[in-house]
Amino acid sequence: MNKELRDLFLYLSGLAAVGFGMVGLLLAFGHVLLQSCCNTVLVTNGTVLYALGGRIWYPILWAALGIAILLLTARNRG
Asked: Which of 10, 18, 36, 51 has a CA between 20 and 30 Å from the CA of residue 69?
């Protein structure tokens, strides 16, 4: 039972990290596209944009961490 709970926790953590990375990438690219084509700002609060996607490496690292966790979980299950 403990191994199954650990695997479930790892799987959900991996999904959360991948989702956080994807949201950050969408915010970063959406902000850049809107600023370049429409001269508007996607998120008015600069700290939220900076934390999620202001620097492009942060969401990429989150997504990579999530993928690594998911691969580790899949390898442990198999």
From this structure: 51
Condensed to tens digits (0 to 9), the pLDDT of residues 22-73 reads 887 777 777 666 666 665 555 555 555 555 555 666 777 778 888 888 888 8
Q: Which two tokens stand for residue 74?
A: 């899949």
* Amino acid of residue 38: C
Helices first, then strands: H and E counts in the chain: 3, 0
What is the C-alpha to C-alpha distance for residues 51 and 16, in angstroms, rounded to an integer?
Answer: 16
Distances (CA, A) of 27 to 3, 70, 75: 36, 23, 32
